Amino acid sequence: MISQPSRHCTVELQALPSRIGQVRRIISAQLRYWHLDPLIDQAALGVTELLTNVHRHAQPDKTCTVDVELLLDRLTVSVHDHDPRLPTVHDADSSETHGRGLALVAAVSESWGVRPRGDAGKVVWFTLPATCPAITLPEYPAVYGATTTGPFSEVPEAKADAATATARSAVAG
After folding, report:
1. Other beta carbons less than 10 A from residue 94's beta carbon
2. DSSP code of residue 41
3. Per-residue pLDDT tens digits for 38-93
4. Rounded to an integer, what distance in angstroms lies between the CA atom of residue 171 and that of residue 158?
5. DSSP 8-class letter at 173
6. The whole model's pTM is what?
7. DSSP letters along 133-159, please?
8. 36 and 132 Cβ atoms separated by less than 8 Å
């Protein structure tokens, strides 16, 4: 039996600068495993910005959980921290060196948002459109062996008799 690859990845960490780089590498490796290489840069940038916000702003601690989930054609990356204060998008001046994190997340993602979790903190998330060739199943004809197109649709008359005399069943993948 062939099992589908896991479509969920969770990492718990302290949002410290050294750990943010490690999480970025973990997510990149997971996306490679899921054959979603085109999403690596966007996902890594988004998670870096969300974890940097936890590092700079979260109270009472920097403990957080990063979840990456592939569901159908959507990749969702979320960061849960223990600070109940909700973030806001800041209109950063061109001379400012910080304050663009959520604007960057909004720019690289399909959608993003915040879910309050009461005294347990909040979850900040973003989504990316995903197509996964490793999970997509090929289309098969409605009736197996009865196709009228393809490389064997025009079998010469003499070979057709020989082919039907020694017909065998096979599945090619």
Report:
1. 4
2. H
3. 999 999 999 999 999 999 999 989 999 999 999 989 999 999 999 999 988 766 65
4. 25
5. -
6. 0.69
7. TTTPPPP--SSTT--SSSTTSS--HHH
8. yes
